[in-house]
């Protein structure tokens, strides 16, 4: 199992002072910065683009930026996020005409590549691309909006994908996104996740360090 990564989603941050928010959450123990990129096409919401990523890099953010593309088609926007400073770019197979080609595109621009599975997307979509991935992101809510409740069937899906990753022998991260909180992160970690996206559970609280500390302690208790 890889080291634990807590990746706060800036979707829940205060955008009027985003640079300050990101600085604060990283100083409080967060490991990555998670971007939820929505296009009002693939998902029924509209959020942020590469300019925000570039602005945070210019602001001085050096932590990995984890970009989750909920856009369709996906290939057009990949180079823009890579140029803006993304570290990891993940996309949905439903949003790409040629999944393997999109993975190659992401890597050709110097970023790590991830594939995202919605709650109803079968794990078999990984069969022919898993060896080429750096990360698999399982959605434990339906994409489009923050603040939703964790879908329990994601736990069994985590176990299945964890077994698939372990069988490759490669250091592929298993990320979870949706309804992750201090009181359920231990159970999620026990099912196989090592990378945890949390939005309102962190940015909705007064003390970021306290929440992140409790999350990491809950994960450590399962290792």
Automatic annotation (TrEMBL):
Residues annotated as the enzyme's active site: 36, 177
Protein name: Ribulose-phosphate 3-epimerase
Cofactor note: Binds 1 divalent metal cation per subunit.
Top-rank taxon, per record: Bacteria
Gene Ontology terms: biological process: pentose catabolic process; pentose-phosphate shunt
Catalysed reaction, written as an equation: D-ribulose 5-phosphate = D-xylulose 5-phosphate
Pathway involvement of the protein, from the record: Carbohydrate degradation
Matches recorded under PANTHER family: RIBULOSE-5-PHOSPHATE-3-EPIMERASE
A GO molecular function held by the record: metal ion binding
UniProt record similarity statement: Belongs to the ribulose-phosphate 3-epimerase family.
Keyword Kinase appears in the UniProt entry: no
Binding residues for a divalent metal cation: 34, 36, 68, 177
Pfam families: Ribul_P_3_epim
Known function: Catalyzes the reversible epimerization of D-ribulose 5-phosphate to D-xylulose 5-phosphate.
Cofactor(s) the record lists: Mn(2+); Zn(2+); Fe(2+); a divalent metal cation
Keywords: Carbohydrate metabolism, Cobalt, Isomerase, Manganese, Metal-binding, Zinc
Any one of the GO CC terms: cytoplasm
EC number(s) given by UniProt: 5.1.3.1
Annotated binding of substrate, by residue: 9, 68, 144-147, 177-179, 199-200
């Amino acid at each position: 199992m890889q080291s634990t990564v807590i990746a706060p989603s800036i979707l829940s941050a205060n955008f009027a002072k985003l640079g300050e928010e990101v600085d604060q959450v990283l100083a409080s123990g967060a490991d990555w910065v998670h971007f939820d990129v929505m296009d009002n096409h693939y998902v029924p919401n509209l959020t942020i683009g590469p300019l925000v990523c570039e602005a945070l890099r210019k602001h001085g953010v050096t932590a990995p930026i984890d970009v989750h593309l909920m856009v369709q088609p996906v290939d057009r926007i990949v180079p823009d996020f890579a140029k803006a400073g993304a570290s990891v770019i993940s996309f949905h197979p439903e949003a790409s005409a040629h999944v393997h080609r999109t993975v190659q595109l992401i890597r050709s621009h110097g970023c790590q590549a991830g594939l995202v599975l919605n709650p109803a997307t079968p794990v078999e979509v990984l069969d022919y691309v898993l060896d080429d991935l750096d990360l698999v992101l399982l959605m434990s809510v339906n994409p489009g909006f923050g603040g939703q409740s964790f879908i329990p069937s994601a736990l069994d899906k985590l176990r299945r994908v964890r077994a698939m990753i372990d069988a490759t022998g490669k250091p592929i991260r298993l990320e979870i996104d949706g309804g992750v909180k201090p009181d359920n992160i231990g159970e999620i970690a026990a099912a196989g996740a090592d990378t945890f996206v949390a939005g309102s559970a962190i940015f909705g609280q007064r003390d970021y360090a306290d929440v992140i500390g409790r999350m990491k302690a809950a994960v450590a208790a399962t290792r």
